[in-house]
Amino acid sequence: MAPESNARVAAVVVSYNSASTLPACLDALLAEGAVAEVCVVDNGSRDDSVALLRARAASEPRLRVLEQPSNPGFAAGCNRGAENTSAPFLLFVNPDVVLEAGSAGQLVALQSTHSSIGILSADLRDAQGHRDGAARRMDLSVSRMLRALGARHALSIPVDTSASLQTVEACSGALMLVPRAVFDALGGWDEGYRLHVEDLDFCRRARAAGFGVAVANNVKALHLRSVSGRQRPFFVEWHKHWGLWRYWRRFEGASAGLLLRSAVSLVLAARLVLLAWPTAMLKRFRG
């Protein structure tokens, strides 16, 4: 589908070994009339992703592929994609997310009507129709961090079915519409995060700068959940825990005493070594 004459969205997709889900993601994005350009940043994939992207880009003028020799992380990939696009709205989309028809235009229309919103997401669901618990979340704190260590979606908040637009503290980085002016005001994503927690950081900084964060409950998107993270579970867990520590140090730890900072560090380290890595090893063995 050709873009509309007033297409204002630049979709940024950061990919790593995502060949199994990229075709559906790109099909949906390129079918959106509101999407003027799609930039896929490949972070050193070792599967067929690059070949797939090159072939698609050869016949699709809206698609640009940035091939990075290594994987600097999700946040860095998002920033490179933003730098290489020009449309006034940035739509950050995971390669395992498939938009419903018309979703990009609906999100832009909502954000344009509610200009105080700086980050807008959608109702993410899996193939069975179950809502993604990461789509609507609370900020991290010490107590919430401890709960988050023991549960997959400890920060989740329930959907408000009475509201078409639900204000939240944080939404999922799997799908975010951000006006470029807001993105520039925030200085982009924090590249100190390799993967995980960078979306919580991005949302919290947006709110601190006076921008709202919301989820469009009536706008749907399919979140397939790719297998790229499962290929290196120890790497993923390490950077998840590092992200938790970085986030807490920035927003909470700066005013904390030495005893509390040491305790949080020890709890995170213990959880990584005694629980996260053994669990990852067991899953890998079973898989």
Secondary structure elements and their pairing?
Layout lengths: L8 E7 L6 H9 L4 E9 L5 H11 L3 E6 L5 H10 L5 E5 L3 E3 L3 H11 L3 E9 L16 H9 L14 E3 L7 E5 H7 L11 H11 L3 E12 L9 H19 L6 H29 L1
Parallel strand pairs: 1-2, 1-4, 2-3, 6-9
Antiparallel strand pairs: 4-8, 5-9, 7-9
Which terms would index this structure?
2 domains; 9 strands; alpha/beta; 9 helices; 287 residues; 40% helix; Spore Coat Polysaccharide Biosynthesis Protein SpsA, Chain A
Question: What is the percent of helical residues?
Answer: 40-55%
Listing every helix as H and every strand as E from the N terminus to the C terminus, the arrangement reads EHEHEHEEHEHEEHHEHH
**Number of separate structural domains:** 2
- Biggest sheet statistics: 5 strands, mixed
- Spans of at least 5 consecutive residues whose pLDDT stays below 50 are none
CATH architecture descriptor text of the largest domain: Alpha-Beta Complex
Order of strands across the main sheet: 3-2-1-4-8
How would you state the average pLDDT, rounded? 88
Structural class: alpha/beta
The CATH class assignment of the largest domain is Alpha Beta
DSSP helix count? 9
Can you say what the CATH homologous superfamily of the largest domain is? Spore Coat Polysaccharide Biosynthesis Protein SpsA, Chain A
Using only CA atoms, what is the Rg? 19 Å
Strand content: 15-25%
Please tell me what the overall shape is: globular
CATH level-3 fold name of the largest domain: Spore Coat Polysaccharide Biosynthesis Protein SpsA, Chain A
The first-to-last residue Cα distance is: 40 Å
What's the count of strands?
A: 9
